[in-house]
Write a structure and sequence with these properties.
It is a single chain. The chain is an all-beta fold and 447 residues long. It has three domains: 33-205, Galactose-binding domain-like (Jelly Rolls, Sandwich), CATH 2.60.120; 210-311, Coagulation Factor XIII, Chain A, domain 1 (Distorted Sandwich); 316-446, Immunoglobulin-like (Sandwich). It is built from one helix and 34 strands. The strands form six sheets. Strands 1, 2, 3, 4, 5, 6, 7, 8, 9, 10 and 11 form an eleven-stranded antiparallel β-sheet that branches.
Length: 447
């Protein structure tokens, strides 16, 4: 049977393991979903008089407050000594007079917008304050404004807002810029310190990732350990690349996939193919049954996440058109009474994608046996061969083998004997069931 397995698997691999992927353009449009989180220093995320650096986590977003490395990282602390209109209660204050320490805030997820209530202090005039947004170390944009002193308050205040217009950023730096003072003013009298509060961060949530079996494309069906999966989304990767070696790489086109299972174990998935709209990956052996989270990362940034159910088996059969329908990706082997073997095609294909149709299978003379070798995925986890059944045209068909195909990762093989009673039936359905779970129905033509 090794020769049979090689022929079928090699035919499948000739399609570059991409399984008819259509690549779409890459862009930032995928970061459309948003969530706004407010850090106000009054809700218990940090303690009074807590100095920087510190982390403040709220609603799943972590903000890291500090100063850039060349400055004293502990120059800011949580205070409430001043009662200001825009900064009630606790606020974050720079108490190092005349040193102009910038405040740096890094975020655990990319943002699209941010607003900060501020006050500039230690000033005889109203000095500007500036916010610069970065994606890692690359400047995305900046904004500056000058506060206005409310009636009855001692210092200029305002709300500094920045919207990137859709470009993600994950760090901001807030500072009073060093500028030449007006004539007759000494720079010592310009604002050197500032206070911030009510930081509203608009998080750019990655779009959802929908993962299905690469064989059946059955919507809502679970995946299984050892299964070849296809994940669909937008902006998943910046390029297109297919695996060229075994074992499978875990990075293609600077893109990775991680699966965190119900036991909390996270594994990098082997990759067959990546493109902006689709990624084909291998669910690692040992992935626990239950809900798992699949995360796609490209160029160090999360581009999509999704939740999938993992079961012991999730049978799917590859088809000639790679859409889970019609003629299977299979071969038929006629074994004559003298044990000689003849290979028959079960599909014939034109040059256009999706043009494959069934090809009649000749059951041969009396005494011959025709074994159909099907290729699929999500089958190898079955507990016993007895749990695998097949019906062709409603007739029970003996299953000789159902398990891993040894030469290609994730690929499973099922050998089914075609009953001779089906001779002359024409097109019929083949229904495969593994431990009570039905695979996608495929079509055969019996001569």
């Amino acid at each position: 049977m090794c020769r049979i397995a090689w022929r079928g698997a090699r035919r499948l691999r000739s399609t570059s393991y991409a399984f008819m992927v259509a690549a779409l353009g890459f862009g930032l449009a995928g970061w459309a979903q948003t969530q706004t989180v407010t850090f106000d220093f009054d809700s218990g995320g940090v303690t009074f008089r807590q100095p920087t650096p510190f982390d403040y986590t709220k609603d799943g977003l972590t903000a890291h407050f500090s100063s850039p490395p060349i400055y004293d990282p502990g120059s800011f602390s949580v205070q409430n000594t001043l009662k200001l209109s825009l900064l009630p209660g606790n606020y974050l204050s720079d108490n190092r007079i005349e040193f102009r320490n910038p405040l740096e805030i890094g975020f655990s997820q990319p943002l699209s917008a941010i607003s900060v209530a501020f006050a500039t202090i230690d000033s005889h005039i109203e000095s500007p304050i500036r916010l610069t947004a970065y994606m890692d170390s690359v400047v995305v944009g900046s904004v500056r404004m000058q506060g206005v002193t409310p009636a009855g308050d001692p210092y200029p205040q305002g709300t500094l807002s920045y919207d990137s217009g859709g470009a993600p950023f994950n760090k901001v730096q807030i500072e009073i810029p060093v500028e030449t003072p007006p004539i007759a003013y000494d720079i010592r009298y310009l604002a050197t310190d500032f206070l911030v509060d009510n930081i509203r961060a608009t998080v750019m949530k990655p779009p959802g990732l929908t993962s299905v079996s690469s064989a059946s494309y059955a919507s809502g069906a679970p995946l299984a350990a050892g299964l070849i999966a296809s994940g669909f989304g937008q902006g998943l990767a910046a390029g297109t690349e297919a695996a060229a070696t075994q074992p499978l790489p875990t990075t293609l086109a600077n893109t990775t996939v991680k699966v965190r299972d119900s036991a909390g174990v996270e594994r990098q998935a082997g990759l067959f193919f990546v493109a902006p709209a689709q990624i084909n990956y291998l669910v690692s052996e040992g992935t626990a049954i239950g809900l798992a989270t699949v995360t796609v990362t490209s160029a160090g940034q999360v581009t999509a996440t999704g939740v999938v159910a993992i079961d012991r088996v999730s049978p799917g059969l590859f088809t000639a058109n790679f859409d889970g329908k019609g003629a299977p990706a299979a071969v038929a082997i006629t074994v004559a009474s003298d044990l000689t073997q003849t290979v028959q095609a079960v599909a014939r294909c034109g040059t256009a994608p999706g043009s494959c149709v069934t090809s009649p299978i000749d059951l041969g003379p009396s005494g011959a046996q025709v074994v159909l070798t099907l290729y699929g995925t999500g089958i190898r986890g079955r507990s016993s061969l007895a749990g695998v059944t097949a019906k062709i045209g409603g007739v029970d068909a003996p299953v000789q083998y159902a398990g891993a195909q040894p030469e290609f990762p994730g690929l499973d093989q099922v050998n089914v004997v075609i009953p001779r009673s089906l001779a002359g039936r024409g097109e019929v359905d083949l229904a495969l069931t593994v431990e009570g779970k039905a695979a996608n129905t495929v079509r055969l033509s019996i001569k």
